[in-house]
Amino acid sequence: MTDDGIIVDAFTELAPGYEETMDREIRSVWGLSYDQFVERLIEAASLDESEVNAVLDVATGTAFIPRKLAEKAGANSRIVGLDITQAMLEHGQKMVETAGSSSRIQLVCASAMAMPFADGFFDVVICGLGTHHMDVPRMLSEMRRVTKTGGTLVIAEAGPAPLWRSFLGSALLRILLFIYRLRYMSAVRVQAEQEAFLNLHTAAEWRTMLSGFGFADIDVVEFRAHRPWYPCALVMKAVT
Ligand SMILES: C[S@@+](CC[C@H](N)C(=O)[O-])C[C@H]1O[C@@H](n2cnc3c(N)ncnc32)[C@H](O)[C@@H]1O
Q: Could you tell me if 137 and 111 are in contact, meaning their C-beta atoms sit under 8 angstroms apart?
């Protein structure tokens, strides 16, 4: 796994331009805006506006997902965004305040490997594009612990293109990452992303892991990228 210090350095550097970077990268890989991508994730969570929900967004970054959730969830719902990078949360906090949502969104700086929440506290747990930086089994164990019985988990993540699992495909992936580094990325982000690209899981692997951690009714939707060597997008939904 990538060292947490490298991740924090990478996202501290990226924080001021994070949302623009995400929008550009998601458009180039999946042909969707960042906003549309997050809409799909939130749609999968099927939040009912009439219900009061405690929602957790793991690896919340600049709290884009909580801000969108605040528009969809019931007015009395409470949303917590957790992230390991303080600088991402500081940018997020400013935008939460600008959106007038600070009474509903709380941002917490902590690792998803040991979340500072009671067992079964959340009705809905969400994570968008954060799992590839983490020890996924440990993260799932924590997600399972903090989700109440009957609660919902929704994860949106990139998945490996089938090509990457071959020897030639893995070499091609490294070349693409190198080109990407030359075009867009700072060196520290490359370090954070290179290992993360090797920590992507297929739909079948997600099903196995989710069921191994006691999640049921697992549904995985896959969106293909427009080039066969780009990662696909996966949206996983399951209940506890
Ligand atoms: C690509 S961003 C995703 C942010 C946000 N979910 C979104 O969709 O825009 C990945 C985030 O994961 C966070 N992260 C990485 N490892 C983490 C960990 N162990 N615990 C909590 N957050 C972590 C990083 O700090 C970063 O903000």
A: no
